[in-house]
């Protein structure tokens, strides 16, 4: 594709994304479906350009007014240029800017001059908000929580997430899958914490690989794998994944149960549960029972009161721990939406807790980094439910032989009460988890 046509396509995609009517990943997928002729490299350039615009929106909004032409085109030019800079830095860490030849071939003289001006702006000349590119309501709580880690966190959030796989141990050993992938030209390393994880180098296409087709691998962030591990579901148990969605954690839990016992996958979205079905078929699991529920007090839920060994509540949340993958969330979420989520989270956790039998385990998890959706929900639950005893997540993970378990946790008297994963510290998405056992 000629550079001019590619920048025009980037401009159109930026325009569609910035309406914020739909999640960016859905807009991008739709665009690719509508433009089937796009090659692999063009798709990568389009997606990376748009994601860079979303990641650096405040900076680009600050730079765009000095340029000419439609605003979306200026943002697309900056997105493309900054993405190329990131690529160049990855391969040559000292590089300041990436090659501009391709991009220049798409620009007129005024645009080239403007880009040179933008390239000359130094980081230390910028206001703080143009460097961190976060809305104030999000920057403040992050600073309070991570202190000096704030700028490393900002840098981590401005990169794309690594591609993590979970090996389905029901089918294969991690080392065997790693060897098989290497033979297919896909390099990977073992993830540092999850016993099932492989971190793949680059972003190779996976869905046609024999290992994928036979259900030996699933794409899953290492942090998400750890939350499934934390539930520690055993052979023959009765287990509920209360907010199963498309079943990322369900599949991991089902495998730890060695496809025995009963694993209910509940969700209010039948559509999301439908996406679980082909994954389930590949996985070889026969112990999973997906069920769409109307709400958290549904009759199907009530019938299981006090009968379940382990319940995972992977609650609907702001998703603000996943900004590396979903940078649009920082512009689509609002403090008001978070408040509404808190009410829902507390209600779902309280309902799900009723299922846990005496001696059973309850795990509450989110992929949010906000204390309101995490510690605050866990503390309010603990205060209202004296029949649940909090377990120390650091100890639980250590018992599960997770390396450096304490470094994955924070909070409480022990400093390791809750799982707290951060992109800049653990190379995972931001995750939270709290664990309780019901008094026997
Ligand atoms: C964080 S997502 C789950 C992701 C999934 N566990 C995974 O690992 O792929 C939260 C899910 O909660 C579901 N949900 C929202 N309200 C619910 C409710 N009242 N009861 C059960 N599930 C609910 C949403 O439909 C969504 O699929």
Architecture overview:
The chain is of the alpha/beta class. It folds into 3 domains: 131 residues, N-utilizing Substance Protein B Homolog, Chain A (Orthogonal Bundle), CATH 1.10.940; 57 residues, Sun protein, domain 3 (Alpha-Beta Plaits, 2-Layer Sandwich); 217 residues, Rossmann fold. It is built from 21 helices and 13 strands. Strands 5, 6, 7, 8, 9, 10, 11, 12 and 13 form a 9-stranded mixed β-sheet that branches. Strands 2-3-1-4 form a 4-stranded antiparallel β-sheet. A hairpin with a 6-residue loop joins strand 2 and strand 3. Helix 1 crosses helix 3, helix 3 crosses helix 5 and helix 13 packs across helix 14. The site of S-adenosylmethionine has 19 residues, from helix 14 and strand 6. One of its GO terms (biological process) is methylation.
Beta-strand portion reads: 15-25%
Give average pLDDT, whole number.
96
Low-confidence stretches: none
Top CATH class of the largest domain: Alpha Beta
End-to-end separation in angstroms reads 66 Å
CATH topological fold name of the largest domain? Rossmann fold
The count of strands amounts to 13
Query: Helical region count?
Result: 21
What profile does the largest beta sheet have? 9 strands, mixed
Question: Architecture of the largest domain, according to CATH?
Answer: 3-Layer(aba) Sandwich
Output the structural class: alpha/beta
Query: Globular, elongated, flat, extended or rod-shaped: what is the shape?
Result: globular
The small molecules bound here are: S-adenosylmethionine
* Relative helix content: 40-55%
> In CATH, what is the homologous superfamily of the largest domain?
Vaccinia Virus protein VP39
